[in-house]
Amino acid sequence: MTAIAVAEDRTTANEPVLRTRWFTARDGTKLVAETGGEGSSRCVVLLHGGGQTRHSWRSTALELIRRGFCVTSLDARGHGGSGWSVPPNYMLEVLSQDLKDIVATFSSKPVLIGASMGGMTSLHAAGTAGIAAGVVLVDVVPRVEQTGAARILHFMHGHPDGFKTLDEAADAVAAYNPHRPRPADAGGLVKNLRTGSDGRLHWHWDPNFFRSSDLNNSHLLEDAFYELCANIHVPVLVVHGRQSDVVTVEGIRLLAGHLPQLEVFQVSGAGHMITGDRNDIFNAGILDFLDRHMPAAPPLA
Question: Which domains are delineated in the chain?
Fold first, then answer.
């Protein structure tokens, strides 16, 4: 697997540079990531949740780079700028293999930070290949609450005909996250949408994703994840949104029974979408974990 830098992105003169890199997966699927902070002795890989894109990590990625980390924020196959599997194949093992192959291009083991689907991918890759220096699970554990998981799937399968305007898409997000104030400007959703051949706006992910993935029935993977935990000896942190309907204290307790080194960081005022609800607190929590276990090189001047 090779990577080629193709573009740079810096919103202001004071922000770190983010470079766009392309990877080619084993089956030929093109995967895109944003990277920054090259040259640091400690790398972090950010893996978004189902239906999201790498752009959901932007503020976290920039903060990590400022603090001296090398960051790779990946669009999972079937999401954002990455290619769609042909034929559709989004099994957890495939997502995990993509991650393992990308990490194989690094000079050192990274810390894997994954939200929901990205967390499950991280846990699988860490448990099957020992590729991680640490793992952060963002509101996901092997025992997820099926009511909350079903609500996510309902949202992701909703609006198959797309949206006429950004405001219509923003209304759908607001209905899914009623505890979060609806932004006055819906422009932040642009990178999570694509314009279809019908001229309408569609979510920037392959609608076949969960139809061809075992993550559609994640509860069937629970025991397999617990078995993989026996192979994970690095620090692990669960970041839990206190208002989450996907992860419960009981689910965390069950995981801790298989990962004695497990740490927990609770985020008040946040649901399952922690980085969108309380990004400042989230950043502080993961930076504390990283500073204690895997400190970066000195921050950039």
Answer: 3-149+218-293 (3.40.50.1820)
